[in-house]
Amino acid sequence: MCAPAVAGPHPRVVSINMCTDQLVLALADPDQILGLSAYARDPLLSFAAAEAANYPSLSGGAEEVLVLQPDLVLAGRYTRTVTRGFLKAKGIPLAEFDVARSIADARMQIRRAGELLGQQARAEAAIAAIDAAVARAEAAAHRRLSVLPLQRRGWVAGGRTLTTDLLETLGLANAGAAFAATGGFVPLERIVVQRPDALLLTREAVEAEDQGSALLAHPALAALYPPERRIYLPERLTVCGGPMLAEAIDRLAAEAERLGR
């Protein structure tokens, strides 16, 4: 993939995608960051939400990006087509990042972002931290258990996802692979019939506060999966592929050790 031509070794950038927000916040100098997507400040999804509060929050429209006159815009492959097309038509250098579906994808994206931002040393340090976490995880002996990543309304992460790769690093199996390739909604009955060894949840406190969370608090799941059969990993550590994966792997390893006792 060709890199867009940008001005200077440390270009001033705008990010209009939450996952590229994370890369920019981790790698760029503060004076390089002109603006971030609206989701950058969301504490449930953004690993660097507190830091993101120091920068302008954008709605995602192309016009506000043009006003900032960035040297480079970072976007996701699925960021609004109209916005990306408009920026390209105006001659704004645009770098698009796909969804990271593995730790290897995350490494490549961190390295690419480092090159685009002129921050190769920081990128390599972030990759080294992830590699060290992987080495620690692979050195530990964990029981081969099936784990179902389950979210609101019964959404399950499928087999071809970053979640699967993280679990496999620990020697665990993603039970969601039996339901979908990348993800999908699964009825409670199918979960009960399949009966994986454990659930992987993004929140420790599960309450039926609305229809979306009602399934997670269902008595059938409560009976089959008491706290000792649940793994908790905040969504902000896995929703994107970035430097936060080092912490995600370490936390998942600690949970796997607890689960296997």
UniProtKB/TrEMBL annotation:
SUPFAM superfamilies: Helical backbone' metal receptor (SSF53807)
Pfam families: Peripla_BP_2
Protein name as catalogued: Cobalamin ABC transporter substrate-binding protein
The organism's taxonomic lineage, starting at the top: Bacteria, Pseudomonadati, Pseudomonadota, Alphaproteobacteria, Hyphomicrobiales
Gene3D superfamilies in the record: Nitrogenase molybdenum iron protein domain
Domain Fe/B12 periplasmic-binding: 12-261
InterPro entries cross-referenced by the UniProt entry: ABC_Transporter_SBP (IPR050902), ABC_transptr_periplasmic_BD (IPR002491), Vit_B12_bind_prot (IPR054828)
Keyword entries, A-Z: Signal
